Amino acid sequence: MLELKEKKEEQEFDALNVQALEGIKFKSNIWKSYLFHFFMGGHFIAGVLIVFFMTWGKLSFVEVMFLQSYFTIMVFAFEIPCGAIADYISRKFSLFLGGLTIAITAIVYSSTPNLGIFIVCETLWAFAEALLSGTDSALTYDTLKKLGREKEVAKISARNSSFFLIGIGLAGPLGSLFTLFMPVQYVVSVMFFPFFAAAIIALTLKEPNHDLKKNSENPEKYLSVLKSGIKELKNNKILRILAFDLVIVDAIVFFIIWTYQLYLKELGIQVVYFGFVAASLTVMQIIFTNLVPKLDKNIRNKKRFLVFYTIIPGIGFILISMVNLIVIGIVLVVAIVGFGFSRNVIYINGINRHIEGDNRATILSTINMIGSCIRASLYPLVGYIVMFNLNTMFLIIGITIIVLALLSRVKNEYL
What we know:
Order of helices and strands: HHHHHHHHHHHHHHHHHH
Shape: globular
Number of domains: 2
Number of strands: 0
Largest sheet: none
Helix content: over 70%
CATH superfamily of the largest domain: MFS general substrate transporter like domains
Structural class: mainly alpha
CATH class of the largest domain: Mainly Alpha
Radius of gyration: 23 Å
Number of helices: 18
CATH architecture of the largest domain: Up-down Bundle
């Protein structure tokens, strides 16, 4: 009897040791995830984006916009099959394949300035983005579930985003500095190294998904999931108002990313400094994204705060259509990104509070997809307006944002 008791205690002790060892392995996924996101932020092209496409690539701005519209559509098209890769093969394999695909694409992209090559590369990049989309979040959640720390998912996800932005913030200035001693296309080639490093890190992750229970009898059908998200938006008036109020303005503000370098060029700023402006945009985005929740807690009239917060980037767009002073121009661009790219934080609580049922992730994904579709449809239009006159485009965007803010149907109690 005593021997059986000792044997049982020994087995329990061994089981605890195994569990502790497993916990250590899964815990390493957290800091490896930080590294993965940091290297995935290695976009050296951020500081020379327009120069690469229009000077070396010999594309018109309209062609660049059509190319980005095509990219957005292809990401949407790849979402379903790539989601299957992550769910039914492996999360870490999906991350590895995504990082490796972008690394190879960077080499191919810089091989020759040819529109056909660019289309192929945008297709590959879209495939990689779809592989990464949501997969990193899923792996993070699954890892925390194995560790019994699911409540930390928001905090860990925020840190992942911060590491990604830090990566971009460092890569932008470096990319601009690289142009001092190498042609701009080689700046894109060098992007192979951070993305390849991210792919290798993904291989070292411990896959938590295989050990978690799956509902194999009733696997979710992606098209059904999408339909349920659209149905929820259709039937939920408040959620629909919040969602469209968010994504329409966000889609319009986004175009500052594709036009600010043209503006800097018109101001007479040299390409070598573009990356430093790109880094300041990233820093400002981090600051405002973390500042807004603190402000939002202390404000009673959230509707008035939202309108004011939305009008500021609108005014910024109008002003840069008139200002030709370098310092003021840069400050305005930074302000547009700071205020415009952090608006979504104001909507987070309201949107989540008004989602009914258990399909929260589905609805949030559907809202993101709607935003992508709006952006894809606007790319060519913005391209043509810019070819006509850049300042006219800034003016139209600014006025549109202000009108949308003043006509917003969002009420204080929705937020």
